[in-house]
Specification:
heterodimer; A: mainly alpha; 3-stranded antiparallel β-sheet; B: about 55% helix
């Protein structure tokens, strides 16, 4: 089975290969150039997302009380977590109040989550091209503030 | 204190807080009033129409109402416990006719998205219909 998503190293190598090709083939056809530029840009985008995903995973792991039910770093920029005793919806509302938008609930996957013992759902962070490390920092600061609430 | 006086008290208390602290207050309320939240999590008590699971009961004891509410999310539970506190101790007739508008007056925007507001508007309507039925029964 081939790799579905490349890792950071794979993305960096792919971007470098495409850039080398573009430099080495200034006379190539417009179509060939467009194809390699697309490859380069996509690899750069993926590279940024993979780096940010790694940063998110590390930072989330450091927030006291955060549980990462999957236990392994996901392959894409989507991370599910819990912050007991707070219910996922409560966490999402309190993050929203701090300017951080996340999803909460069962993400249209109730049977899967039931089978994983997560019928109450999870909080889910999704990274996009528009996110950066500061967004991750803001998320984690928001979670620390929630975790500090004395019920 | 009457039902409407308790409503005013909640509107005033929450009105002084910023939105984050409003939610914190509601979650605290959910934890601190077990006498208002001990309703069995069974199908007959489940209130349909709310995004989160919500269980409510409204009964009459010696001429006065007793309401209990529970939810798995603390914010929703806190909102329902506020209602339980308002309804409990009120006469059925009083509860059926009261102008209950605390959710409209409080700026709990996130917990009161259109779907959720329908949920709580429906809940209040359900409670007041039930209170009216209990008043008529007497």
């Amino acid at each position: 089975m081939g790799e579905v998503l490349p890792d950071v190293k794979g993305c960096a190598e792919k971007a470098a290969r495409e850039l080398d090709w573009l430099k080495a083939n200034p006379q190539a056809s417009r179509e060939e150039w467009a194809s390699h530029i697309r490859g380069y840009v996509l690899a750069k985008f993926l590279l940024e997302e993979e780096k940010l995903r790694d940063y998110l995973w590390e930072e989330l792991s450091r927030v006291p009380g955060v549980e990462l039910p999957l236990g392994v770093k996901p392959r894409a920029g989507i991370v599910s977590f819990l912050l007991p005793p707070f219910y996922p919806y409560d966490v999402a509302v309190l993050l929203d109040q701090q300017g951080v938008a996340v999803r909460s609930g069962t993400h249209c996957a109730q049977p899967l989550l039931d089978s994983m013992g997560l019928s109450q759902g999870t909080v889910r962070v999704s990274l996009g091209l528009y996110n950066n490390a500061q967004d991750v920092d803001r998320l984690c600061a928001g979670l620390r503030r929630i975790a500090a609430i004395k019920l | 204190m009457t039902l409407l006086e308790r409503q005013e008290q909640y509107v005033n208390t929450l009105g002084e807080l910023d939105s984050f602290d409003q939610y914190t207050y509601l979650m605290g309320l959910a934890m601190k009033r077990p006498e208002l939240s001990g309703v069995p999590r069974e199908e007959e008590y489940r209130f349909l129409g709310c995004q989160s699971n919500l269980w409510v009961s409204l009964e009459e004891e010696e001429g006065l109402l007793r309401m209990r509410a529970d939810s798995d999310t603390l914010i929703v539970k806190g909102m329902a416990v506020m209602l339980a506190d308002m309804f409990t101790g009120a006469a059925p007739q009083e509860a059926a006719q009261a102008h209950i508008d605390l959710f409209q007056r409080l700026d709990l925007e996130v917990a009161l998205t259109s779907v959720r507001r329908n949920g709580f508007t429906e809940l209040i309507r359900f409670l007041q219909n039930r209170a009216a039925a209990l008043a008529e029964y007497n």
